[in-house]
Specification:
Helices cover 4% and strands 46% of the residues. The chain is mostly beta strands and 333 residues long. This is Aldose 1-epimerase.
Amino acid sequence: MTTKAYEGTFHGEKAFWLQAGRYEAAVLPEIGANLIAFRDNEKEYRFLREPSLDEMEAFKARPIIHGIPVLFPPNRYEDGKFPWKGKVFQFPVNELKTGNHLHGFVHDIPWEVERFGTNESESSVTLALKVREGHSVYTYLPFEFTIRLTYVLNQFGLQQHISVHNEGQEEMPCLIAYHTTINAPFAPNSQAADYTFKMTIGNRWEMSERMLPTGEYQPLSSEEAKMKVGGLSPFFESMDNHYTTAPQNGRNYMELTDSREGVKLVYDVGTSYKQWMIWNNGATEGFFCPEPQMNLVNAPNVDMPADQIGLVSLEPGEVWSESARLYTIAIKK
């Protein structure tokens, strides 16, 4: 199997490319370490939504609905307020329609490429975001820490490993999600109608008009309940929904099945992610976002047990880490 790892470009932007057999992937270090492409070149599958050349300026202005953006801290915070250990950090209110802060500070800034390379079976790249006093992220989250992100490509598909290391002297919050943007269809000859999905959801959180959780659950519709077993279109209705996770057989995942091609894309995200967001752009066919998230939306402002809402903290010197993977399985048509 041929493997390669090299520095190149993606529509004019600096990119690091990985190749392993029929698979290739690209990550953009200058734009939030976004994994902007994951492809099966033999089948001509493009699993992630990639911006076209004409879309690059809009993508760079808002790099959220392409590839795999890293959100830290993820989703919304009421009035931009983030209470933590007796202090209240003030984030910018950047979603005017809700009056909230949205999506954190790491998805649109440069990350450092620490290393990249290959061996006979895989190619890989490791990127790091080192936050110290004077860093743009430190302005809002005054802690010293490093987020390290590694992508590995091999014959089995794509693996992602992320870690957060608290290198400061104070206990810090550790809240991460991905605004993962999956193509449906991902195969060139398929249509959206050929696709169904399954997702390990649990309960659906009730949300206020400001898209903040009330602390209560709301009943799943009969259609939503099908997400747990599969066979449901990703575009069955408009979704901007927040759920708890409910791992099945020890795994937390989304499966997207192309019945025409006889293939299933598996997004196995790991059990550290206690919440799912799912957004499908108003049920517009073409892509949807199954978003693994550690914490409940607005978690620091919610009076519920930290374990229940994924409000994770790291003591000085502690490291949190989790792995995820994207791969395909052939199925009978």
